[in-house]
Amino acid sequence: MDNSPAMLAIAALQTASYNISLMYALVWTINSHYASDSTKPLTIVQLATRDESRGIHNDLIDDVLGLASSASRIKFLLEGERLDETAESVAPLTVNTESVPVEPARTIHMQTTAIWLLDSIWAYYRLERRLVLVEGSFKRNGYYCIVYTGQERDRLDTIKLIFRRLFAIYVINVNVFVENRQTGQVQVYSYYPYRSQRCQSSQPVHYATFYGGLGTAPQIHVDNHTLFFDHKLDDMHGCPLVIVTMQHRPFVIIENDANAPNGRRMHGIEGMLFYLLAERMNFSIQIIEQTDHDRGIVLPNGTITGAMRMIVDGEANITFGAFMYSQERALYMLPTTTYTSFPIVLVVPGGHQLSPLQRLTKPLGDMTWLCVLCSFVLGLGLIGVLQVVVAVPRLRRFLLGENNRMPCLALWCSLLGGLHQYPARRNFARYLLMLWLLQTLVLRAAYTGELYIMLQDGRVKTPLRSLSQVLAKNYIFHMLPTLEIIFRDMLPADRIVVMPTLYKTLEQLRDDENDVVRIVAPLLQPTVDRFNVDSGPDKPHLSQLPDPLLTAPLTFFMRQHSYLKQRINKLLINMMSAGLVHRFRRMYLDRIEHMAVMRKPNREPTKLTLWLLAGIFGSIAILQFIACIVFLLELGAAAPHRQRLRRFMDAANRYVA
């Protein structure tokens, strides 16, 4: 005699207190959908409010599991148990036949697949309380089935109410199984939030019918894309989505357009990206511009401001506009996947103008000046050793050349580009001279070329070069609210000023010519480049540290538990893979980066004023003053009675030269 689970379950059907077609429908759903199209654990929960219904639900669950397990594709777990490591290929199924607990089950991963058995609208209310809990057991974007066994006359009205309340909490992937009292068939109802000529709809749609028979697939009554759970957001039939954004070049650029809906049109990196999403999902765009550029923060009293408030309150569906991901925003809104990222740079004051003496020393760096000084001192030291310490004429002629009676003067003249009057005649001495002349040639060319540029442009300044300099000089940081948490551990609270927009701060930094502004501002690199371009050719560039501070990911934000996230994430990933996001970046960044680079060469150089040349004239005046003193000393030494002065001047002339 065959005692298999399938035969035992079929034998028990003769005493079943429920519709057999309903059991067959659930078995097909488990075997053909949940066990094959999903790898997530399936939970079966009965929430009956009457004892009679509870018994029916328990019998139905027992028989369904008996038939479903005959396929050897189901592993049964009690609630709270984990799947063994050796059973990864088996679709786990969790059974809970008890009432909903007062406290929700705490799970690491909330469930996204379940079958709920309800017998009244009050049972649904108990389920809804479990769905809206922050730490509940089920995610609202999962795929769920409801088996409704209520016996009231107008069950379709109850289903309408259930769908309306599910839509209000963003649960759209749900199918309701209802027994037809006349035919005994099982009808499946669902709802489409976006339909032709009807938006934001929660009206039930007769989606499919199970005609009975074990393993018989249902007849689908609508044009669907999948076998059981349809893709309800592939086509939104032109229904509007409300977005709240702001003018933030080059990410979002809002312009008036008489041909566009509502007379406004968006472009920019994110604007073009969102229009492509609208084209793929077939929805229209209703723009709300946040004119005060307030992306939104949470005040200490819990009040939410700006665009974030409109998303949380349900006044808008999506917001974007260079929104950086942050923990606070993710707590109150739902982020999409990151589609691009940009470096954050620190905009600093331009610094004070170079003094005339600084313009003479600025062309070469500190290390270069040190190398030049070491080479010159080493040459003087070698000459002194050869002439004073080691007085060997042959060695002196071998290294310095013959008839070179003033080698120090020759060293100095060759450094400044003068003639060498006593060239060496031996190869080793010539080789040393060639090395020195090559070094001085490169140094003079680099020095004179950079000096010419600095003298031509009177706007050359000395900006800050590192974050440590900024921190050491106690600058005030003006920043957007998102970046406050990053700098909170680095700076005291009195040096952080949070502002919704930094446009006025950038104007202060740009127009500061005397280095009196003691503020800095971290910003996205494209924002800085766009501000430089918008400032025009007559305004100076913003100064920034050469190295970025960090990289910021950008994302769209929507209301918590929004059903739009999965579809938008999938499209964003496809767009990134196809290179469309990179193309939109280059469309707007290439232009502003090119214009920012080309602005400086196109500006005419300033005239060489007396102030710019004051360093040279000052050095000449000092040397002329020294020459006058030497001239007076020479006149005094020519007197016959000043023999000591004569000997001093003779020694000075001999050894200085």
Describe the structure.
With 657 residues, the protein is an alpha/beta fold. Helices cover 43% and strands 18% of the residues. The strands form five sheets. Strands 2-3-1-4-5-6-7-10-11 form a nine-stranded mixed sheet, with helices on both faces. Helix 4 links the parallel strand 4 and strand 5. Helix 10 runs antiparallel to helix 12. Mean pLDDT is 81; it is low at 5-17, 85-91, 97-108 and 600-605.
Given as residue ranges, the uncertain stretches (5+ residues, pLDDT < 50) are: 5-17, 85-91, 97-108, 600-605
Shape: elongated
Query: In which range does the helix fraction lie?
Result: 40-55%
Proportion of strand residues: 15-25%
Q: What strand order characterises the main sheet?
A: 2-3-1-4-5-6-7-10-11
Average predicted local confidence, pLDDT = 81
Number of distinct beta strands: 24
SS element count, helices: 21
Class computed from helices, strands and strand pairing: alpha/beta
Span between termini = 124 Å
The main sheet comes to: 9 strands, mixed
Q: Any idea what the radius of gyration is?
A: 41 Å
Offer a few descriptive terms.
657 residues, alpha/beta, nine-stranded mixed sheet, six-stranded mixed sheet, 24 strands, elongated
Compact overview of the structure:
This protein is an alpha/beta fold and about 650 residues long.
Task: Lay out the secondary structure.
Layout: H1 5-11, H2 20-37, E1 42-46, H3 51-68, E2 74-78, E3 91-96, E4 111-118, H4 121-132, E5 138-148, H5 155-168, E6 174-179, E7 186-190, E8 194-195, E9 198-199, E10 205-210, E11 219-220, E12 240-245, E13 253-256, E14 264-267, H6 269-281, E15 284-289, H7 306-312, E16 318-319, H8 327-332, E17 333-335, E18 340-348, H9 356-361, H10 366-389, H11 393-400, H12 407-416, H13 427-456, H14 467-472, E19 476-479, H15 481-487, E20 496-498, H16 503-511, E21 519-524, H17 525-534, E22 543-544, E23 550-554, E24 557-559, H18 564-578, H19 580-602, H20 614-637, H21 643-656
Helix pairs in contact: 1-3, 2-3, 6-19, 10-12, 17-19, 20-21
